[in-house]
Amino acid sequence: MQRNFVRQEYANFLRKLLYSIDHIDWRVNRSAQMTKLLCHLEKRHGSWPKDVEEEQKQVELAIDRFEKEEISEMDFGRKLVEIMKSLE
């Protein structure tokens, strides 16, 4: 039961991240913008238990690729949706 709750809460976190991504101008300093956004969201949610460790690694990889402009905003969003759906 606890594991399912944690997974659902992480999915909700990703939903908020996706919503926020749509409202940021990414043309200027992606890395700083993403850091600021993640810090804000993580302050609200705190740290995550090991139940979502694999998904966190996937999200971190997607963030890294997005910050380096290896993937577009659209592809980044798709990846987050894919991870979010795997949690539900």
Summarize the structure.
This protein is mainly α.
Number of DSSP strand runs: 0
User: Please, how many domains?
Assistant: 1
What is the ordering of alpha helices and beta strands?
Answer: HHHH
Uncertain runs with pLDDT below 50, 5 residues or more? none
- The geometry reads as globular
Structural class: mainly alpha
- CA-CA gap between termini: 13 Å
Radius of gyration: 13 Å
The helix count comes to 4
Integer average pLDDT: 83
Helix content: over 70%
Beta content comes to: under 5%
Major sheet: none
How would you describe this structure in keywords?
88 residues; mainly alpha; 0% strand; globular
Could you characterize what this model shows?
By secondary structure, this protein is mainly alpha-helical. It has one domain. The chain has helices at 2-21, 30-45, 53-67, 73-87. Helix 1 (2-21) runs antiparallel to helix 4 (73-87) and helix 3 (53-67) runs antiparallel to helix 4 (73-87). The longest helix is centred in the first third of the chain and has 20 residues, at 2-21. The radius of gyration is 13 Å and the shape is globular.
Q: Layout of helices and strands, plus pairs?
A:
Blueprint: H1 2-21, H2 30-45, H3 53-67, H4 73-87
